[in-house]
Amino acid sequence: MQMDAGVLADFARGCAVLGSGGGGGPAAVTCPVAEQAIEECGPVQVVTAGELPEDAFVMPVGLIGSPAVAEERIGSRAEPARMRERVEALHGVPVAAVLISEIGGLNGCTAVAWAARLGLPLLDADAMGRAFPRMDQNVLELAGLRPGPTVLADEYGRTVVLDHVDGPWLEELARAVVATFGGHAASSEYPLTAGQAARHAVAGSVTRAVAVGRGEGPPPVLTGKVSSVRRTDEDATRVLLEGTGADAGRLVRIEARSEFVAAVEDGRALALVPDVIALVDVRTGWAVPVEEIRYGLRVRLVTLPSAPIWYSEAGLRLAGPAAFGVHGLTREATP
């Protein structure tokens, strides 16, 4: 597949849905940034890990920190090249391809922009299959791959390398660095080979995002309006959806943290993290981030299964309901 401007628009919409309400919104900044990069540097070739030599070095890329800050600090054209130079110096091998660290939200388009500017292919895969709030909530962590050396960089060329850390320590230290950088940074963590990507990454993420952006996913669970939004503290939000049209009379409660984590109707979980839960604005067709949900918004409730590994015992321990403080709800069946 070739990622050109036309495909990019569908891809960005799909990434917004796979963000499950988190990961930042790609529409405002990173989609236009990727579009400009493609216009200036040409389309990006999307390849499977199996199309590369097994020992080819793959550079994961993404942004961490506040999405609001990311909208104000969009980075520079030189940032991808600086990151590649630092990563190649650490590993002593050339970067052969780019991997999306987190396809949900704004990071998918960020990786497209970087691949375009570096003239590198983009793997049809990612490390999460959706968005999660923590850097260590990814399938490479589940596979036992080392997080480091991790490179964090800002738009001024400053870099910090974190090594000899496990996943939880990466999360703690990286957030401290990001705070020092002013709330936003580019990152490359869990470096790997194409062979490791083929065995452990979430395959087909890019093509799945494009399909979701084209509306090829399952039908909405409910169409309605937001009748109540209650933010109980800085981490928790509760949304009440009131069905309209054919769904009139239905009430669905949505629980959220950084992402939507549960959709409940009559005490029954319609969807539960690690399921993807998205509220898509009926008017714009874009999935709405948790922080932008407001009273009166007309939305479609969309749910999708995550990668199968997230429903394993280890996957649920790392990113299941209990990891987000959700208790007392169970899914009727594993997707």
Automatic annotation (TrEMBL):
Pfam families found in the cross-reference section: S-Me-THD_C, S-Me-THD_N
Record domain S-Me-THD-like C-terminal: where: 168-214, 221-326
Domain of life: Bacteria
Domain S-Me-THD N-terminal: 8-163
InterPro entries: S-Me-THD-like_C, S-Me-THD_C_sf, S-Me-THD_N, S-Me-THD_N_sf
Protein name per the record: DUF917 domain-containing protein
Organism per entry: Streptomyces aureus
